[in-house]
Amino acid sequence: MAKEITTRGDNYSQWYLDLVNKADLAENSAVRGCMVIKPYGYAIWEKMQAQLDKMFKETGHVNAYFPLFIPKSFFSREAAHVEGFAKECAVVTHYRLKNDPDGKGVVVDPEAKLEEELIIRPTSETIIWNTYRNWIQSHRDLPILINQWANVVRWEMRTRLFLRTAEFLWQEGHTAHATREEAVEETLKIINLYADFAEKFMGIPVIKGIKSENERFAGAVETYCIEGLMQDGKALQCGTSHFLGQNFAKAFDVMFSNREGVLEHVWATSWGVSTRLMGALVMAHSDDNGLVLPPNLAPIQVVIVPIYKNKEELDRVSAVADQIIPQLKARGISVKYDDNDNKKPGWKFAEYELKGVPVRLAMGPRDLEKGTVEVARRDTLTKEVLPVEGIDEVIEKLLADIQENIFRKATAFRDENIRKADTWEEFKTLLTEKGGFISAHWDGTPETEARIKEETKATIRCIPLDAEPEEGLCIYSGQPSAQRVLFAIAY
Amino acid sequence: MAKEITTRGDNYSQWYLDLVNKADLAENSAVRGCMVIKPYGYAIWEKMQAQLDKMFKETGHVNAYFPLFIPKSFFSREAAHVEGFAKECAVVTHYRLKNDPDGKGVVVDPEAKLEEELIIRPTSETIIWNTYRNWIQSHRDLPILINQWANVVRWEMRTRLFLRTAEFLWQEGHTAHATREEAVEETLKIINLYADFAEKFMGIPVIKGIKSENERFAGAVETYCIEGLMQDGKALQCGTSHFLGQNFAKAFDVMFSNREGVLEHVWATSWGVSTRLMGALVMAHSDDNGLVLPPNLAPIQVVIVPIYKNKEELDRVSAVADQIIPQLKARGISVKYDDNDNKKPGWKFAEYELKGVPVRLAMGPRDLEKGTVEVARRDTLTKEVLPVEGIDEVIEKLLADIQENIFRKATAFRDENIRKADTWEEFKTLLTEKGGFISAHWDGTPETEARIKEETKATIRCIPLDAEPEEGLCIYSGQPSAQRVLFAIAY
Q1: Which of A29, A65, A150 is closest, CB to CB, to B67?
Q2: CATH number of the domain that B327 lies in?
Q3: Are residue B276 and residue B309 in the same domain, yes or no?
Q4: A54 touches chain B (CB under 8 A)
Q5: Which CATH number do you get for residue B29?
Q6: Does A450 touch chain B (CB under 8 A)?
Q7: Given this model, what pLDDT does residue B437 score?
Q8: Is A381 in CB contact (< 8 Å) with chain B?
Q9: Does A132 fall in a domain?
Q10: Which of A71, A88, A131 minimises the CB distance to B96?
């Protein structure tokens, strides 16, 4: 191996951090809790952004940009929201530095104190609904379907690259509607869009559901989510879509005259996914050799490594590569030819395995004689020797096959790791010995959920949208329950 | 007119603000100095971003992301930099709010004071070079060619939408090189790239030059810039590319071992353009009817407005539109069909003029009989009636023609407004009566430049790269000068 990484079996958590660091995805910065997203990691994020942005636009959304700062008083307007978001946040109190009178660098200028402190946005409902007030008068101004790509800050005490950082990148959609039905429809449309993205692009099967009250977004009437399962049996929330009712319209006094000319409060949704998805992508598919990237999000889909002893051999291999590369590019496949002379082929093989490049082609003098190329796939680590003739078509199919296989494998793993528990003992044993999702009856109260969390660290990940009604008794309290919900220990 | 806008002749500055507001580009937010970029304005910015990003990648650059926060002490490391940037900035001093003991909302928790204050980045040289220290050991790690798309904050006292705002969006490139020559080459490569973008996409002719010491970036050895001229005769800096020498490498202790194994400090460049370009775009081309957008950056390139009296007529017009639209789209032309029944055609005509849509097609029953369509171009406000047959090809050529015409017109205006002054009286008269660029001799001292600025508000916009050497006497001091420089009053 080019770079040592801890194995999953040894220490899953360290394996994750090793991968993120050594595959050049991200690293910790000099600012506590904030990360540097390195070029290779950022290239994956750009692919995610491009695809999501396309899907948002295809469903009628447009992008805009709202301020980074939110006046402190805005948070107090929505009672639940302030409890959830205004506490652990970055507060701007001054707007100037001055030279230290003692001659040691710069100090905050006490005379440049803001009248009202500004909060770095942890989420933008407040500033956006304050703006919407001026944009909405009539039902003709609705719906507003806006998305924003932005950075946000939440002052997390325990951070982990991508999964939980003080600053992170995300998109936040904020829509305004004339009716409750339309807003609920939008909320559902987006959670379905997120699920499609997770499954078709990230290769991660997700369960769509509704959050319990304890896990609901602060200020929402209902939070929909998609939940994925990582290889260590922990769940990871991959995206949320909130039906906000009229809460923010009431807090910011946003009203419209309906078709009958009567004033009503506007209905709202908000929804987002973040760079946290990078963490999910790493943890869902990768192995002890490194990243396994789904071809649909891989910055480099195919790498070609020449095997040669001298300049003459390299030239001959390069001549064949020069034929293959344009054929692959014509099919929209991103390809890198690595003829760097400073590294040996073995080092390169390990490096591109670490980086999760889906397909590796290796070509040496013997291949040239036979008109063949060695094709290695990252997901199965299998190799075969194939004719150069027609290789572009073969690789296009192979990439589709890898994409599908990654999803199939993750789905099989996820399905094996949803287990029913019907008693409290069974629940605790499953959780300790197997992990994964546990489908169990719950009495519907926040108190029970809180006690289960306290005793086991497991939370209700969601009430699945497709769950069948089933009469039962709460595993914890023994009270009646109308359907099973999914518990798990979560990131 | 659908919405009244001030004319340029009446009040240029108000005309600009009217356009930005009424064409739905941006508006002031509840946070002093921060703007909301509205969907139509953001769509133009997205087109700028996409094109620039493509050009950066074609020249070997990759994107990454660095933290929003910079520890205060980082600024003190580079002496010139701290003077230029660390003064008017947003300072984060606390990381928590708590419920007001008096029960009135939330207050800053005095116990959550940061040990070291964090500055919201006004530019990222310091945090990036602090990071590069760990990325660079050998000449093999160079060059690093990284760009970042980000928001930055500079606490401006007098703000104006897009032109000067406390928070703005930009890209900042930060490259690291093994030699001075390579870094200078990069600096020039980028200023040429910016000039190409300004001219071919924004339709704005720019003068490439070097900044005088007074106008140089704080921390740079040399600042290259592109300067455009607005219709009121004021100059606007459209982009800068800085050769930073080894200043930041020395400040952050970034060294590499060269091919001979000797340790050296790394050479640096940084370069950026921002949402300020939106202001330039508006001011360079628009007229008293509204925006005039170059087709290469117009979110909607063609709008089709049906003219009809009843549903039957509308259906017939729509049937023809349904033929034209896919033909236009197949040529990569973005088109909007506006059959909104709430607005009259006249209102729509004025609205799309205001929004700067380059081409408007209008079709009514009489056109259907004759197989024609009325084609109006925004730049010249001329109309002609043309056959529907083959209209897609005609429009494709027309869009190219409009793009070229906008650039030609702006170039003619700019060229007419570069004037030579050989005496101080002449200089002052030209500045007051004509504005524009004044080409004049200068003795090369910061003191003279400062005095000229004090007396006339004019600054040296640049020392043009293509200027011919010419012996002369400084218009202000009478001291010898080796070449003319360009003065102007600037935004």
Answers
A1: A29
A2: 3.40.50.800
A3: no
A4: no
A5: 3.30.930.10
A6: no
A7: 98
A8: no
A9: yes
A10: A88
* pTM of the model as a whole: 0.97
- The pair phi, psi for residue A110, each rounded to 5°, is -60, -20
The verdict on B143 and B19 lying in the same domain is yes
pLDDT band at B1 (very low <50, low <70, confident <90, very high): very low
Q: What angle do CA A14, A20, A25 make, to 5 degrees?
A: 170
**Which residues 132-151 of chain B have a CB within 8 Å of chain A?**
140, 146, 150-151
Task: From chain B, pick out residues whose CB is under 8 angstroms from the CB of A62.
Answer: 39, 42-43
A270 and A309 fall within a common domain = no
Query: What DSSP letter does each residue of B229-287 carry, written as one string?
Result: E-TTS-EEEEEEEEEEETHHHHHTT-EEE-TTS-EEEPEEEEEEEETHHHHHHHHHH-B
Domain limit, last residue, from B367, B400, B433: B400
Residues 286-315 of A with CB under 8 A from B: none
Closest Cα partner for A166 from A122, A228, A208? A122
Same domain, B367 and B246: no
Dihedral sign (CA B28, B33, B38, B41): positive
Domain limit, last residue, from B370, B400, B430: B400
B67 vs A: CB within 8 A: yes
**Statement to judge: residues B346 and B388 lie in one domain:** yes
User: Which residues on chain A are in Cβ contact (under 8 Å) with B36?
Assistant: 64-67, 131
Number of domains in chain A: 3
Least CB-CB distance to A36: which of B95, B97, B131? B131
Q: Per residue in B261-304, pLDDT tens? A: 999 999 999 999 999 999 999 999 999 999 999 999 999 999 99
Residue of B nearest to A97 (CA): B87
The answer to whether A148 touches A174, Cβ cutoff 8 Å, is yes
Residue A99 lies in a domain: no
Which residue in chain B has the smallest CA separation from A147? Answer: B39
Give the tens place of pLDDT for each residue, A436-480.
999 999 999 999 999 999 999 999 999 999 988 999 999 999 999
Touching check for A93 and chain B: CB below 8 Å? yes
Q: What is the dihedral of CA B184, B185, B187, B189, to 10 degrees?
A: 170
Domain limits at A176?
12-68+123-285
Q: Which 162-221 residues of chain A touch chain B by CB within 8 A?
A: 167, 169
Residues of chain A in contact with residue B126, where contact means CB-CB under 8 angstroms, are none
Partner residue facing A91 (CB), from B73, B108, B130: B108
CATH number at residue B452: 3.30.110.30
Q: Are residues A261 and A194 in the same domain?
A: yes
Whether A377 is in a domain gets the answer: yes
Measured distance CA(B8)–CA(B22) in Å, rounded: 15
Put simply, whether B105 touches A (Cβ < 8 Å) is yes
With tokens 């104006």, the residue in question is B160
Residue B385 to residue B391: CA distance in whole angstroms: 11
Task: State whether A127 and A176 are in the same domain.
Answer: yes
The verdict on B268 and B340 lying in the same domain is no
Closest by Cβ to B65, choosing from A117, A120, A169: A169
DSSP B91-122: EEEEEEEEE-TTSSSEEE-TT-EEEEEEEEPS
Give domain status of residue B201, yes or no.
yes
DSSP strand pairing (A335-337 vs A302-306): parallel
